[in-house]
Automatic annotation (TrEMBL):
It comes from the Bacteria. It holds the Pfam family DUF1499. Keywords: Membrane, Signal, Transmembrane, Transmembrane helix. The chain crosses the membrane at residues 43-67, 79-97. This is DUF1499 domain-containing protein. The keyword Amino-acid biosynthesis does not apply. Residues 1-27 form the signal peptide.
Length: 247
């Protein structure tokens, strides 16, 4: 009895998608245990994304080849390759976009003229080889172009009330608070869910006449790569702070 051959394209699709998924999935653990540097981990995710995207081509063609009177076997492999490849693209895509096409804001501030300073977190940044002082220059220009909305915000509340709300906001965002100075500063760290990248954050509250000015700074520790997390951290903080102040 004649048995149709298995589609080679279907097989290639599932193998390619599996390699892409493995590369992207291993990037985080390898970076967390300091086996690879951040740039290398991001390259692994990018390679996984490319492999996942390429797997969609033979997967689609291989799936079509399984239909018809003389269709080949391997429909399950083709479907698996398509599903796995699409999953890798969807999950890794935002990271790849942020690392490759994003503005690379490894140090982001809401005020360039007088950026908040790291104090409690300064030694950790120095040990990691990360700058303590805000670099400005090209980084500031990229931020102004990509996120003009990220500026300091004014609130009518007392400094102590804002700092208390800021600490609650930080804890609500699952940050680790390193220092709270009731005179007007809070320092904390956040860790990204996949790669475990550490982001150092400082919040400053200043009395400015009839209102209080809240500025923020978020900087990547251990490298100058950014996948859009610093901008997200600052935006999430302001949103959570305002939710706390309204309670």
């Amino acid at each position: 009895m004649f048995q149709a051959p298995v589609s080679r394209l279907a097989t290639a699709s599932v193998l390619l998608a599996a390699c892409g998924a493995a590369a992207a999935a291993l990037a985080g653990p390898l970076y967390r245990i300091h086996t690879v540097e951040l740039d290398s981990a991001l390259m692994m995710i990018a390679a996984g994304f490319v492999a996942g995207a390429l797997a969609l081509i033979p997967g689609g063609v291989g799936l079509v080849a399984t239909f018809g009177l003389h269709g080949k076997r391997g429909r399950g492999r083709a479907l698996a390759g398509l599903a796995l490849g699409l999953g890798v693209v969807v999950v890794a895509g935002p990271k790849v976009y942020g690392a490759v096409l994003g503005p690379n804001l490894h140090d982001l501030v809401t005020t360039e003229d007088d950026p908040p300073s790291f104090r409690a977190l300064a030694p950790a940044r120095e040990r990691a080889g990360s700058a303590v002082d805000y670099p400005g220059g090209a980084v500031a220009e990229r931020q102004a172009e990509a996120h003009p909305e990220l500026t300091g915000r004014d609130y009518p509340h007392d400094v102590s009330e804002i700092l208390s709300a800021a600490e609650s906001a930080a804890l609500g965002l699952e940050w680790t608070v390193a220092r709270t100075d009731m005179q007007g500063e809070l320092e904390a760290t956040a860790r990204s869910y996949w790669l475990g990248i550490v982001h150092d954050i400082v919040i400053r509250v200043e009395d400015d006449g009839d209102h209080r000015r809240v500025d923020a700074r978020a900087a990547t520790r251990g490298g100058e790569a950014d996948v859009g997390d610093n901008a997200r951290l600052v935006s999430d903080f302001y949103e959570e702070l305002e939710a706390q102040l309204e309670r």
